[in-house]
Amino acid sequence: MLNLHALSVSRRRRSVLSGIDLQVGAGEVVGLIGPNGAGKSTLMEAALGLIPFSGRSSLAALPESRRARQAAYLPQSREIAWPVSVEDLIALGRIPWPGGGRSPRDLAAIDAAITRMELQDYRKRTALRLSGGEQTRALIARALAQETPLLIADEPIAGLDPAQQLACLRLFRDLAAEGRGVLVSLHDLGLAARFCSRLVLLVEGRIIADGPPDQVLSDDLMRRAFGIALHRIDTPEGPAILPL
Amino acid sequence: MRPLFPLLIALVAMLFMASLLIGPAGIGALTGLKALILGGEGPLPIVMREIRLPRAILGVAVGAGLGLTGAALQGYLRNPLAEPGLIGVSGMAALGAVIAIQTGLALTAALMLPFAALTGAAVGVGLLMLLAGPRGGSVTLILAGVAISALAGAGTALVLNLSPNPYAANEIVFWLMGSLADRSMVHVMLALPLMVVGAVLIARSARALDALTLGEAAAAALGVSPGRLRIWLVTGVALIVGPATAVAGAVGFVGLVVPHVLRPLVGARPSVLLPASALGGAVLLLAADIAVRLILPERDLKLGVLTAIVGAPLFLHLIWKTRSGGRV
């Protein structure tokens, strides 16, 4: 679904990413973790072809309109420029599709996204007057309405309350179960371990580990990446991870 | 939102008729229309067809053009304070016209002045593309536009400063205030085709402007090519603002105020705001052009002066609303 090979990005002659090899397949939730400034957002932007890079990205190789039907992108900055209604905001996800946002298929996709993000009561409200967390949910719904096989989300759970964080990651797991692929960056290692089928650890522009969560969250790698130790508590819900 | 468009269209039609029927010649409504459509003998058909009709058409075209370009630039820059003059094209068009008046070129042929203004506008667009480059962001475009506007303003001031001829200086000052009086069908034929092409370019960018609501990165991921959108939009705006300035002079505030007033009425969607602002601009300019004929008919009140007088309080309203916590 997404295939990156030897992808590198330089900005102002400083290497930001180098030699990235990464695959995201159908049915996977791939968690991208790493310290601030490791290049997580840059990796996502380069994979989509939004910034210049060298190497190969299967997504960036597509023509713009086809790429927009292949992958939806939720950027880290939650921008909403105009006081549009939540419904109109979500309808923006239909721009890559024919139908002008008002065809039966468009409306069905918009309704499904609203239902999934439980935004029924917010439909007609002005998106700019919602709280930050509610805006994030509306923007996730916008990405869902794009109905793409692949979803690339940059820190989608930042700013959400605990219940919404869980709901969001459960949704990603459900999407994967439906056969879609998800690439998500996040900082909560405990949630990453619980909900991601695979973790990719990025440090200083390089992938230093790529594998199942318990393998990537090893003491040695965590010390190298973040300079911290982890405390694991096994619970019936899965492992609870506490950074120390 | 639904009744807005029929209402605006009805207003444009009404004001267009009023613009045809109001003037110093004091022609009765029925007689005037009959002369306009059927023609006939005497001065009546000439007044209707050669003086009032071009004035009314230009009122619609220039007003719609300013409203449309204002909405397009606000949508593109995601800033409610953007206006058509921002990219410097109108300033350069004005400089071209001012030079034509000063050098006496404007007197050599009827269309020399608008041609000089169009040349100025073209030079302005060329400079803008050169300065802002193919890959720069919207901020680069604003900065380049401000720089060109400042340059054009300085050039205009220099011409006025060095003008040895007080009559030419007087004429320049009046021209800069903007007016639709004494324009002919030739002016219409010169400006309208270019403006229509510009409007088509902008209309085709409508969905891309919607996508920009989510920011430049998300819009690009939705399939909007930032470079192509920029070229289409800047060319579209220039093709409208250049000819509009060439035939009507500098008419301010329409492109700033109209999109702002109509935005809440269309649910703030940039693509819907485009046609609404075009209609709203036509309404405002026709109304202002009728008002200059009614308020001080003998003193030649200038159109740009009136739009500024109407526009500034509306602008204050915008500031007031922002200050009291409401978002623009």
Automatic annotation (TrEMBL), chain A:
InterPro entries: AAA+_ATPase, ABC_transporter-like_ATP-bd, ABC_transporter-like_CS, P-loop_NTPase. Residues 2-229 form the ABC transporter domain. The keyword Iron does not apply. The keyword Nucleotide-binding applies. Keywords: ATP-binding, Nucleotide-binding. Transmembrane segments: none annotated. SUPFAM superfamilies: P-loop containing nucleoside triphosphate hydrolases. Gene3D superfamilies: P-loop containing nucleotide triphosphate hydrolases. GO terms for molecular function: ATP binding; ATP hydrolysis activity. PANTHER family: ABC TRANSPORTER ATP-BINDING PROTEIN, HEMIN IMPORT ATP-BINDING PROTEIN HMUV. This is Iron complex transport system ATP-binding protein. The lineage of its organism: Bacteria, Pseudomonadati, Pseudomonadota, Alphaproteobacteria, Rhodobacterales.
Automatic annotation (TrEMBL), chain B:
The chain crosses the membrane at residues 53-73, 85-105, 111-132, 139-164, 184-203, 231-258, 278-296, 303-320. It is a multi-pass membrane protein. It is found in: Cell membrane. It comes from the Bacteria. Keywords: Cell membrane, Membrane, Transmembrane, Transmembrane helix, Transport. Pfam families: FecCD. GO terms for biological process: siderophore-iron import into cell. GO terms for cellular component: plasma membrane. PANTHER family: ABC TRANSPORTER PERMEASE PROTEIN MJ0876-RELATED, FERRIC ENTEROBACTIN TRANSPORT SYSTEM PERMEASE PROTEIN. Belongs to the binding-protein-dependent transport system permease family. FecCD subfamily. This is Iron complex transport system permease protein.
